[in-house]
Every structure is written in structure tokens, then in C-alpha cells.
Write a structure and sequence with these properties.
alpha+beta, 13 strands, 8-stranded antiparallel barrel
Length: 243
């Protein structure tokens, strides 16, 4: 993760944590002045969410005063026609798809703020095809386009990722605490990405040792590029309904 991304993520963490704690204080004030028969919390919650993992939804069950479980699904896809990785530019398609499964820990019985620990099942991947014509230069060496052809790149993250986050409702839209606006901030460790780089040229089978070595260098550059996403930041905004 670059320094700029790290600073932005740290700022998001401070803002989200401060907002969540302020929301908890507001909840406490609301609970202390509420003489109705409203329970301290609603055990079931469903919601729609949008954030860095994509667009999706979740469901949670708070089965005791301080513990709950949660799962969900997020998805997003986009294309980039001129993505630069190493010495090549690719017509690329990126897919974000993940399913978190967490244990939620609620420090306070009457508050929605929670710490979540668990795993994120990760099917994120990027596929790309290079395009061009004429001589191709890799690692300072020049090859005929017919020798190397098109490059097909595929990057996949590890499937099972450890996951840690904090979250809760910022405020409720109704006095009964059914509808709320919430957020989540966390991080998943996706480990070493898996890289596949193949060529459609006449030496794609490895019959040209020099070309094979150059493609190996290009694959390493793709590996280095993908390594910046080893730590996957999770920032979500959600609308929730509890019952």
C-alpha cells in the first residue's frame, strides 16, 4: 500500500471511529431519556451497503448482549482499456466479489458499535489482454510481435482472508431504532496474489529461451504491481433495518 493510500486509510479510520463513538454517545443519551418499552437492542439486522468491496448487502444476528454473527455479499465490476502494468498496457477487466463471515463483539449492551473478527471469502480478480503491433520491447530487449503475440494476464487474490473491522450505526431514522444509517471500516489480508501470464506468439510454448526469460521478468513486474493490494481496505456505508 503506498504512503498516500496509507494516510488516506488512517484518516478514514480516525473519522469513522470518531463518528461511531459519537453515535454511541448519542445512543446512550437517547436510551437514558427513553422511558418506552423498547428493548436494549434488536437481535436481527439486514442492510444494503456500498463501499470499497463493491455494492451488496448483509444480514446479522445478535444472539446475546455482547455477541453476534454476520455475513454478506458484495460485488462490482469495471473495465480499463489502457491499464499500465510493467512494460505493457492491457485492456483489463476487474471484478470485486467477496463474502465476509464474522463474529461481532458488542462492548456495550445498548449500543450498536461492534468489533468484528472473521474471514472474507475473496474472489477478486483482474484479467487483461495486451494489444499492439510491430517490435515489442521487454526488459530492454526487442522482439518481433509475431514472436510474442498477445499477452494474457490474470491476477487472483487468495480465497480466504483474515478480516478485522469496526462498525455501527451513526444514527437512527425512527424512535424505535428500526431504520438506521451505519458504516464499517476494516482491513482484509489477501496474502500473495496468484499471477498467470501467457503469450499467443509462435514461441509461446517456451521454445525461445530469451523470450521466455523476458516474459518471466514481465510476470514478476505484474507480481510486484499486484502486491500493493495485499492489504485490502474495507470502507462501507450502509442503510440498515433491525427487528
Amino acid at each position: 500500500m503506498t504512503n498516500t493510500k496509507l494516510y488516506l486509510y488512517a484518516a478514514s479510520l480516525i473519522i469513522c471511529a470518531g463518528t461511531t463513538l459519537n453515535a454511541s454517545a448519542a445512543e446512550a443519551a437517547d436510551n437514558s431519556s427513553d422511558s418506552s418499552s423498547r428493548p436494549p437492542y434488536q437481535p436481527w439486522t439486514v442492510g444494503a451497503e456500498v463501499g470499497t468491496p463493491g455494492i451488496g448487502g448483509f444480514g446479522s444476528w445478535r444472539f446475546s448482549d455482547h455477541l453476534g454473527v454476520r455475513t454478506g455479499f458484495d460485488y462490482f465490476q469495471w473495465t480499463e482499456k489502457n491499464l499500465s502494468i510493467g512494460d505493457f498496457r492491457y485492456s483489463a477487466k476487474a471484478r470485486l466479489m467477496s463474502e465476509p463471515l464474522t463474529l461481532d463483539i458488542y462492548p456495550w449492551q445498548k449500543h450498536s458499535f461492534h468489533v468484528s473478527v472473521g474471514v472474507m471469502f475473496n474472489q477478486n480478480q483482474l484479467t487483461g489482454t495486451s494489444s499492439g503491433f510491430g517490435p515489442v520491447t521487454i526488459g530492454g530487449q526487442t522482439f518481433d510481435f509475431s514472436d510474442i503475440g498477445l499477452l494474457n494476464l490474470k491476477i487472483q487474490q487468495q480465497v480466504v482472508n483474515p478480516y478485522l473491522s469496526i462498525g455501527g450505526n451513526f444514527f437512527y431514522f425512527d424512535h424505535a431504532h428500526h431504520w438506521g444509517l451505519g458504516g464499517e471500516l476494516g482491513v482484509a489480508y489477501s496474502g500473495d496474489p496468484r499471477i498467470s501470464l501467457t503469450s499467443s506468439g509462435r514461441f509461446s510454448g517456451g521454445g525461445h529461451d530469451v523470450l521466455g526469460g523476458a516474459l518471466g521478468q514481465e510476470k514478476q513486474k505484474a507480481q510486484d504491481w499486484a502486491n500493493q493490494f495485499t492489504w485490502f481496505p474495507v470502507v462501507k456505508l450502509m442503510v440498515t433495518y433491525s427487528f
